[in-house]
Amino acid sequence: MRHTFWRAATVQVDDDMVNRKLWFRSRSEPARAAGLGKPPHTFGLEPDDEGDDASSETAAGRRVLFINQYYWPDHASTAQHLTDLAESLAARGFECHVLCSQGRYKPGAPTPPAEEIHNGVHIHRVPATSKGRKSTLSRMTDYLSFYARAAIRAVRLPRFDLVVTLTTPPIIGLVGTILRKMKGSTHVCWSMDLHPDASLALKRMSPKNPIVRSLAWLSDAVLRQADRVVVLGPYMADRILMKKVRPDRIATIPVWSREDEVRPVPHSENSLRKSLGFGDELVCMYSGNMGLAHTFDEFMAAAKTLRDQKDVVFLFVGGGPRLAEVKAAKEQDGLDNVRILDYVPREQLHLSLSTADVHLISMRPEMTGIVVPGKLYGIMSASRPALFVGPAHCESADLIRRSEGGFTVEYGDSEGVVDAIQRLRDDRDLARRMGENGREAFLASHEMGPCCYQWYELLHSLTAPARPAVRQPVTVMMEPAEVG
What we know:
By secondary structure, this protein is an alpha/beta fold. It has helices at residues 13-22, 77-91, 136-156, 173-183, 197-201, 210-225, 234-242, 271-275, 297-305, 323-333, 349-355, 375-381, 395-403, 414-426, 428-445, 448-463, and strands at residues 32-33, 63-67, 95-101, 115-118, 121-126, 162-165, 186-190, 228-231, 250-252, 282-289, 312-319, 338-341, 358-362, 386-390, 406-410. Strands 4-5-3-2-6-7-8-9 form an 8-stranded mixed sheet, sandwiched between helices. It has a 7-stranded mixed sheet with strand order 1-15-14-13-10-11-12, with helices on both faces. Helix 4 crosses helix 6 (210-225) and helix 12 crosses helix 15 (428-445). It starts with 12 loop residues before the first helix and ends in a 21-residue tail after the last helix.
C-alpha cells in the first residue's frame, strides 16, 4: 500500500516521551517523511578549545581498562568507537589500557602485535581465533577463544580504577564484575547492544532452553551489579530498566561519528564516485554491516521495481551475514541496478558516504531498544538524507523525524521505499535540504567531541574523591541563669 508523506510538526521533548510509551505496541502507523524546517538542538557537554576539563582538576593518575574483542586497527563499529573514546580520554590525562583480541574482525587480515602503545593507549592483545561471522559456530568459536584468554589476562593485570566492558562478545561484562569483586575496580557496562535479547527476539534461541535462561539471568545480573550502565538511547534505557537495573545507575550517551573524518564531499570533487562511474544517477547506498538485526527485502523489492529506471542505482558497501541474501536476490532477479562493494578503509569513509545521494538504513521492529544503528550519524555528518525502514518509534526513527533529515518507512512497505526514492530523484533540492538538516542535528548532539566529553565527565565523576560532608554550625540555645 502506498503511504502518504507529510510534513512533521516541530517535535517537543514531551512528544518523545509519548512515543516511548507506544513502542511496545504492535499496531502499524503510516510511514512518515520528515519536514524541512530546522531541527531543535540537543547540545552535549562540549569540551573547551584546548581539550581540558572546565575545572582546574586533571585526570592524571586515573587508570582505566577497556575490554572488548575488537580494537584498532579493526573496522568493526565497536572497535572504531572504542578507539575514539580511549584516545580521547588518553589525551585528557587518563591512563588508558585496552584488552582485546589478536584475532581480526575480517578473517585473513594481518595479526597485530600482542603489546603496543598507539596514540597514548596501551593495547594488550590475547591470542584468539579469527573465523569471522560466516556462521553461528564460527562466531561462537571466536567469542569463546577470546573470552577464556581475556578473563585470565584481566585477572593478572594490575588493578585499575575503572573497568569499562563493551558487549563483544556477549556477557564479557562478567569479567568486569569479577574485577569489581576481586580488586575493587569501578565497573561500567557500555551497552552497545543486548544479549541474549537479540537472539531471543530473532527467534534464534528458545527462551525455554535452560542454557539460554541461565545466560539471560547471568547477563541481567552483570548489568544490575555494574556501577554504571551506559546506553545508546531512551528505548535501550527502557529495556535496561525492565531488567531491574537501578535508574540512578543508567547513563545515556549516544555513539557518534567524527566531523573531521566524515564530511560532505561534492560529487564533482569525489574521486571515489567518479572511479565507480557514477554521473547524475541517484545513488541509494547501504553502508556497513549487513547483520541479522536488519532487513533488506524492502530495498531489493524497490530495486526490482525501479530496475528499468537508469537514473537510480542501488549500492551496497560492506559485509555481514545477510550479504548472501542481497547477492542471491541480485542474481535471481538479474538486477543490474544493484552493485556490491567490500568495506572501504576508514580514511576513505568521507568519500564513500558522500558518494550516495540517499542512504538506506533498516532495523527489524523486534530489535527496538536492543540495537541502535550507529551508521545514521555518519550519514548525517556526510550531509545526506536517510531512508529508514523499521519501527515507527525507535532511536533512529525519532532522530530522523526530529532533525527532519530524511524519511521513515514502515517495516515491509517496499512501495514506501520506492515513493521516497522517486521523490528524492525528482527533487534534488529536497535531498540537499534534508541532508543539511541532518548535519546540523549531528553537529549539535552526535559528533565525537560532545559525546566523548560526556564520557569524560562520567568517568571523571566516578574516580573523583568523595567530598567530605560539610558540617553545619550548631547554635545552642541556653536558658539565662539566675544570679544570686
